[in-house]
Amino acid sequence: MDANTPSDSLRLTDGLTDPRINRTKQHSLESIMLITLMAVICGAESWTQIELFGESKRKWFKTFLSLPNGIPSHDTFGRVFSLLDPQELENWFGKWTRHLNHVSGSQLIAIDGKTLRQSFDKASKKAVIHMISAWSETNHLVLGQLTTDAKSNEITAIPQLLRLLDIRDATITIDAMGCQKAIAQQIVSQGGDYVLQVKDNHRTLHDDIKLLFDEAFEHDFEDMAYAYHQTVEKGHGRIQTRQCWSTWDIDYFHAWSGLRSVVCVQRTFERVITGETGIERRYFISTLDGRDAAKMLGVVRGHWGIENKLHWSLDVAYREDQCRIRKGHGAENFSRMRRFSQNLLKNEKTLKVGIQSKRLQCGWNHDYLLKIVKGMI
């Protein structure tokens, strides 16, 4: 074995059940998983590309993998991942992610969904896959994910995802789809805090909070206990001002578990060249202390890290929306390999470049690729 190769690589499949019949196996599950993971890290987007990656590095792989029948074919990679139990793979994903997720103090966990746009299979009448992910804004890692058949089913998937996570002392942020009393209760019972956006899907709650702040603005917050914080940013040809008002004077909002504050965040922007302006207000409920408006605004802004740092990266660096893998559990399981690849790349801090450049470096430099993979060992 090469001295620079991952000697503990066979631990990679701990907790995974090989779905194949023993008499048909020509390649170990360990080899299939490790080659796939390394190929995805280096830019592979299909089973054919994973096979090409393996063949191009066959001599190197043989220094630390037993490959009596050579590199698996693209059909083998596709078949194995289409048959792997998604729940087992999620548990496997969670095990390695917990190994990477070192947090001192509390962390911010954003939960949001993303559709795998090319996963719809008309021939087999398979609906498009919608993935719900939990993103640690603190460490920039995906902590877990589950699949639903449609965006509307996020309400049922979010509680299942929360049960997979250790959220003690964490702050959970969810958009309006997850603003549900049962979800709020679950977060509190698991030892976490929440900041939930309120929109028209809770019309009465939304209107009550809006009326509360409208009257406060009209009377300059007279007779209301509140905290305020403002930030101003200039860049990309515009000036953005964000203002946050939070109040703990909320005795009549008692129906929500642990609720301690309600929040209004106003964003105002002005385009420098055209003079165009715009304003929007968003409302939130939270178990956090409303006396710290700066922290509250930071949490609200931090939620969008899942869009800007996870979903955007998956679309741009990994071209997830163009992936046409559809058979069996293939699309869902390949999605996990992309997210695990991103976790490993984010975990490596010595090379100060973006994800795309890190992936190129992995393809060019075996030592750096091994450094990335050894982050999980």
Describe what you observe in this structure:
The chain is α+β, with helices and mostly antiparallel strands. Among the domains are: 9-95 and 324-376, no CATH class; 178-291, no CATH class. It has 13 helices and nine strands. It has a nine-stranded mixed β-sheet, sandwiched between helices. Strand 2 (129-136) and strand 3 (141-148) form a beta hairpin. Helix 1 packs across helix 11 and helix 12 packs across helix 13 (366-373). It is elongated.
Strand content: 15-25%
Give the H and E element order: HHHHHEEEHEHEHEEEEHHHHH
The Cα radius of gyration reads 23 Å
- Tell the overall outline: elongated
**Approximately how much helix is present in the residues?**
25-40%
Report the mean per-residue pLDDT as an integer: 86
Parts with pLDDT < 50 across at least 5 consecutive residues: none
Number of strands: 9
Decide which structural class fits the backbone: alpha+beta
Q: Helix tally?
A: 13
Q: Report, as a whole number of angstroms, the end-to-end distance.
A: 17 Å
> How is the quaternary structure best described?
single chain
Q: Please outline the major beta sheet.
A: 9 strands, mixed
Q: Within the largest sheet, what's the order of strands?
A: 3-2-1-4-5-9-8-7-6
Q: What labels would you give this structure?
A:
alpha+beta; 20% strand; elongated
What is this entry, summarized?
It contains 13 helices and nine strands.
Write the topology of this structure.
Elements: H1 29-41, H2 47-56, H3 58-61, H4 74-83, H5 86-100, E1 108-116, E2 129-136, E3 141-148, H6 154-163, E4 171-174, H7 181-189, E5 193-198, H8 203-218, E6 226-235, E7 238-247, E8 261-271, E9 277-286, H9 293-303, H10 305-316, H11 330-347, H12 355-364, H13 366-373
Helix pairs in contact: 1-2, 1-11, 2-4, 4-11, 5-11, 12-13
